[in-house]
Amino acid sequence: MERELTGAITRSFGRPGPVDAMLRPPCEVACPIHTNAQRYIQLVAEGHDARALAVVRVTNPLPQVIGRICPHPCEEACRRGDVDEPIAICNIKRVASDGARAAGLGFEPPKIEFTTGKKVAIIGSGPSGLGAAHDLALMGVRATIFEKQPEPGGFLRTGILNYRLPKDILDEDIEYIRKMGVEIYTNADVGRAVKFNDIMAEFDAVLIAAGLSESRPLPIPGADLPQVLLAVPFLEAVNAGREVPGLGKEIIVIGGGNVAIDVARSARRVTGGKVTMVCLEADHEMPAHAWEIEDARAEGIEIVCSQGPNAIMGEGKVEGLQVKKCESVFDEHGRFSPTFCETELSVVPGDTVIVSIGQMSNLSFLPEEGPAVNERGILIFDREQCTTTRRGVFASGEVVTGPGAAVNALASGKKAAIAVARYLGVDVNFRPEPAAIGEVPADVADKVKKAPRRRMPARDAGERLKDFGEVETGLDEVDGRCEASRCLLCGSGARYSQLKCIACLTCVRVCPYGAPWADGEGLGGIDPDKCQACGICFTQCPAKAIDLTVMSEEDIAARTVAAIADSGNGELEFGCWYSQSRVAPEAAAVSLPCTGRLSVRLLLHAFESGAKKVYVAVCSEDDDGHFVHGHRQTRAAVADAQKALGEAGLDPASIELRIEPELKCRKAT
Amino acid sequence: MITAERKNFDEIRRMTDGAQKLLVVGCNTCVAVCLTGGEKEAEILASQLRLARKQDGIGGSVETVTVLRQCENEYLDSISEQVQKADLVLSTACSIGPQGLVFRYPTKAVVPAMNTNMMGYVKEHHVWTEYCVACGFCIIAFTGGICPIARCAKTLLNGPCGGSQGGRCEISPDVPCAWQEIYDRLAALGQLDMLKRILGPKKWNASNSGGPRTMKMEGFKP
User: Fold this and answer.
1) Best interface-test mutation with B: which of A506, A603, A633, A654 has the largest number of B CBs within 10 A?
2) For chain A: N or C, fewer Cβ within 10 A?
3) Can you list the residues of chain A whose pLDDT is less than 70?
4) What pLDDT is recorded for position A666?
């Protein structure tokens, strides 16, 4: 099992909530592929980009792609949002991959041995197909992808423009998967270049991950005019650098989703002319992400909301779009069921209309004997088993799930990979669905230091419209580290052993956040919702019943030993990993989430391990530092350790507390 | 709860320097709760001893082990292997711990790392106050629930001495006068009449003045 107990948070009995549940940070739970965001954020905070990328890669076969275009449901769930603003998790993922890339690390895939002898064909090389192929390779199953386009990537290549996802970045992520031994045949249009049944005969299983490759047309008067285009072929042409016939200078884009935004932003770049989006939804109802809408508006795109297309005006050529007032989009059950005021008509002027109201699959390549499609032309599919009606044929991604984010398609492909592997009799690791810890209680949130979220820098709107170069330029190193340092390390704090606890109440008395609890009957525990991982309870517990999940005593001790071995002079600096500089640059460093977790035992251990001099760095004389009472605890531990050293005949000044206001707290700046 | 404080480090050194294989035994009950002799403190002491011995060129080893209570045979039995390997055992328990070790391991040298000082109430974190001296015959029913034996410096039974000033004891302004506290408490309870009753001479025969006391319970025995 991937998740070992050491990484789990155990909520002790006697309290409401899941009994002995393995509670994970909500970012990880909300992520469709359950990436251990906390771990890679922590590594970025410490400056280990390549190791962070390796953590991303454990679950994410397209780290660079997803680090740019993901709608990041993790951030919606982020508990930092209970304090001030969520962590910019997606941007930090990009910091990890950009940093690793710059260092030339993390792009060599593991050597795969296809020991199972099984072969799977995958139709489609979008995120779902690539994700499935990648995971199958890791399970020792050789996957071959059939892609009808000249280059792999599916909608990532044909639908998403370079300004959001540069092609070389996509190429790199795909190349990594190729290097794992995944074969990708391009210009391999199943049904034409190669027959479905031939694939069935050749391979042990087939996965249909063909995506939604067709635009949904709009059956209104005038839709057959030559200047009425569909989103998918338009984006394909722009992406391929082809000229788009029929494109004028005054573009109307019908639709309010993310694809429509991409269409509008591309049209704005290609034509340099006026672009107006028309959508049924009111401003706040638009299905496109808020930040996409903001970007589009920044680029001068006008958005006309609450209007339904009635007819495309013009004789022989488009002259405008007649729209009618849309009164409501959804019925009382929240289902799409628009109602219009048929008399309230107006005209949006324009010479070109691009319809971007949704996509559909093209399953014309399927043979008569199946797999079967339903009366609406949708593949019949078992959501849990990822199976179709034909034995050995599986499906994943948007072709069966409908439109969504790339990360959802990826998740679907990964799920299908497991289903396929099981079908092939391959031993598959089971990974249980994680459960999330709860919200940060308001009284605890009040005590957490506030720190502004680092904004993603972007090229100026006027500048970026001139080309298809990437709009977002990526957080720089300092901002990336600072942003990562805002992470609350949810659920990674104090771990409590009911067996070792002597119910002495020390933790209850010393915790600044009120996380430990005890009842009158000797039962106790530490509420992971409240714990901020400062470590004070750990240093104070007289019975060693408390340790920390991230940076445990054992971990700190091991890092201490390694650092002393590395240092030429036996000097060691314990510091806070939120600071950007050091007090003793000549000393080997061990960074901790809080120097408050330095216990007397750990300080003495450093000397037992050969340290000649130990510096403990704090940034102010305040009691608190990064955590409430963090510095107070540090000072107490240093004083106690100095006394202990003196008693043992060593120089108490061998431990030096250095207060250095110049140490900038990354979180607070 | 029994409270104990660690002895002066030099005194501990003098007791232990001759040992090649020293075992520090922590106790995870009273002395852990009073933050002086539990697993954490036993490990800190062992670490200090190792550093000091190394500094002075004393070889050998200093190991630690902690039991839940050193006043119980079964817990002491559980560390038999470590105790047998050691040539000296240093106990961080109250004095019952080392004596228990001596009883259990008659041939093993055992020394205390602690001075046992009292039975205390935790007034606040890190502060313990003596409330009971185990005199063997409790009289606090007559004194508003406040023990003059433990809490009056002169163990007076019938009111304060002349050293009670402004509610404080003459031994220190930090020490409240127990009889002032008794008076205030009885007044609050409306029981000042209790003070009209003279408490006769204290029965000290139940205290420890007559040799070690033994408590035996009747009832089921295996």
Assistant:
1) A506
2) N
3) 1-22, 580, 662-669
4) 55
| pLDDT for position A496 | 87
d(CA A118, CA A122) in angstroms, rounded, equals 13
Q: Please tell me the predicted confidence (pLDDT) of residue A289.
A: 92
Query: Would you call B44 and A541 a contact, using CB atoms and an 8 Å cutoff?
Result: no
Q: Is A227 left (phi over 0), alpha (psi -120 to 50) or beta?
A: alpha
CA distance A262 to A556: 48
Closest to A225 (Cα-Cα) out of A356, A354, A358: A354
**Which of A509, A605, A647 has the CB atom closest to B9's CB atom?**
A647
Closest chain B residue to the Cα of A541, Cα to Cα: B40
The count of C-alpha atoms lying within 13 angstroms of the C-alpha of A538, restricted to the half-sphere facing its C-beta, is: 29
Question: How far is the alpha carbon of B111 from chain A, nearest alpha carbon, in Å?
Answer: 19
- Find residues 326-385 of chain A whose CB sits inside 8 Å of chain B: none
A662: phi then psi, degrees, rounded to nearest 5 = -75, -15
**H or E segment and range at residue B65:** strand B61-67
From A646's Cα to the closest Cα of chain B, the distance in A is 9
Cα–Cα distance measured from residue A181 to residue B55, given in angstroms and rounded to the nearest whole number: 59
In sequence order, what DSSP letters do the residues of A183-250 get, joined into one string?
A: EEESS--BTTTB-HHHHHHHSSEEEE-----EEPP--STTTTSTTEEEHHHHHHHHHHT---TT--SE
State the pLDDT at residue A409. Answer: 97
Considering only the beta carbons, identify the residue of B38, B47, B56 that sits closest to A608: B47
Residue from A405, A418, A433, A421 nearest A127 by CA: A405
Helix (H, G, I), strand (E, B) or coil at B38: coil
Pairing outcome for strands A516-518 and A524-526: antiparallel
Q: Which residue of A has its CA nearest to B36?
A: A542
Query: What is the distance between the alpha carbons of residues A487 and A441, in angstroms, rounded to a whole number?
Result: 16
The tokens describing A49, both together, are: 């980009």
Contact residues on chain A for B38, CB-CB shorter than 8 A: 502, 542-544
Contacts of B56 in chain A (CB under 8 A): 649
C-beta separation of A397 from A388 below 8 A: no
**Any bridge partners for residue B89, and if so which?**
B23, B110
Which residue blocks in B78-191 are alpha helix, DSSP H?
A: 80-85, 96-104, 148-151, 178-189
Q: How far is residue A441 from each of residues A24, A82, A83, A198, A515, measured CA to CA in Å?
A: 17, 8, 9, 59, 10
The single residue listed with the structure tokens 């920044």 is A298
* Beta carbon pairs, A and B, within 8 Å: 69
Type and span of the H or E element at A260:
helix A258-271
Q: Are A183 and A152 in contact (CB under 8 A)?
A: no
Output the CA angle B69-B211-B99, nearest 5 degrees: 30
CA–CA distances in Å: residue A469 to residues A155, A171, A498, B147: 19, 16, 57, 84
In the numeric block, which tokens belong to residue A380?
């019949």
CA distance B63 to A482: 43
Q: Is B89 exposed, middle or buried (0-12, 13-18, 19+ CB in 10 A)?
A: buried
List CB contacts (< 8 A) between A535 and chain B: none
Give the number of other Cβ atoms within 10 Å of residue B174's Cβ: 7
Query: Angle at the Cα of A585 (from A579 to A590), degrees rounded to 5?
Result: 60
pLDDT score at A413: 97
Contact assignment for B48 to A604 by CB distance below 8 Å = yes
> Is the whole-model pTM more than 0.90?
no
Nearest by Cα to A288 from A157, A164, A410: A164
Beta bridge partners of A614: A572, A655
pLDDT in tens, B123-162: 999 999 999 999 999 999 999 999 999 999 999 999 999 9
Which amino acid would we find at residue A379?
A: L
Whether residues A542 and B40 touch (CB distance < 8 A) is answered with yes
